UniProtKB/TrEMBL annotation:
Name of the protein described by the UniProt record: chitinase
A GO molecular-function annotation: endochitinase activity
Source organism phylogeny: Eukaryota, Viridiplantae, Streptophyta, Embryophyta, Tracheophyta
Biological processes per GO annotation: cell wall macromolecule catabolic process; chitin catabolic process; polysaccharide catabolic process
Catalysed reaction equations from the record: Random endo-hydrolysis of N-acetyl-beta-D-glucosaminide (1->4)-beta-linkages in chitin and chitodextrins
Keyword Hydrolase carried by entry: yes
Amino acid sequence: MGKMMARPATLLLLLVVAVTVADASKSKQKTCDKGWECSGSVYCCNETITDYFQVYQFENLFSKRNAPVAHAVGFWDFQSFITAAALFEPLGFGTTGDKQTKMKEVAAFLGHVGSKTSCGYGVATGGPLAWGLCYNHEMSPSQDYCDPNYLYPCIDGVQYYGRGALPVYWNYNYGLVGDALKVDLLSHPEYLEQNATLAFEAAIWRWMTPMKKKQPSAHDVFVGNWKPTKNDTLSKRLPGFGLTMNILYGDNICGQGYIDPMNNIISHYQYYLDSMGVGRQFSGDNVDCAEQVPFNPSYKAATS
Ligand SMILES: *[C@@H]1O[C@H](CO)[C@@H](O)[C@H](O)[C@H]1NC(C)=O
Ligand SMILES: *[C@@H]1O[C@H](CO)[C@@H](O)[C@H](O)[C@H]1NC(C)=O
Ligand SMILES: *[C@@H]1O[C@H](CO)[C@@H](O)[C@H](O)[C@H]1NC(C)=O
């Protein structure tokens, strides 16, 4: 690439150069093919999620999701998660860094999901952390989540309350995720409560995608792809699990001290670390965001 401005006289030399360059970039960028779960990417040369996270672990993490009192019985399963993850493993989701980093990323992502979809409470059987994936949509929406937006205008009669694994709220967020996944979620937000694979895809897309240009994604900060600027450091935005909450929820969760909603997300992350066999002692630095200045104001944040 970038060697295309050949003059005829140098063609032979250029061919040699081109072949050499292609060889060099091939050996540097070896891609691998692991079947349907991961293919055509350098990340697929690493272990993939099913190499270290299996159905019994998923069942342990979300052990109460099919209890009779749960609200999405029979909806969520391991296969949907892995099928959705397969879109993002070639981009580094659960496939970046050493094995512990990979397992931690899955625990962190699912920690957010578990906390946001939990119906656990203090006296719930199995403890309050065993109830992740209890919901797949908001039960009693307090508003219609329709905001005037010329790019993604609300469709008449369609409601944009929270749905999915990292619940999506508001017409423009449904529009945005729908564009990314090439599914018309603006017209059919209900797909997120009808199709668990799609619900996980939307959630992993959110984890992998910066909220705004020039900002890191939750994935980037968690796996160490991001370095804080001086401004970030002054705002106490340092790499770690805490910053993933900052990115996803802004001042709904962060910069407010040790509030329950923040502690609840951290508790899920650490419970999953224990449950997956990593151990919460490896939670990493900067687990909370109690004193961080939010990247973005929460006003109608993508998730809340
Ligand atoms: C996984 O892949 C990434 C991208 O190629 C690489 O940076 C990382 O070192 C790999 N990890 C292992 C354990 O091979
Ligand atoms: C669920 O969504 C996935 C991902 O978009 C799609 O491949 C699949 O066909 C959908 N399943 C159904 C039953 O619509
Ligand atoms: C630094 O942070 C402040 C407050 O958050 C913000 O207003 C300012 O634009 C930031 N400066 C840079 C260079 O990002």
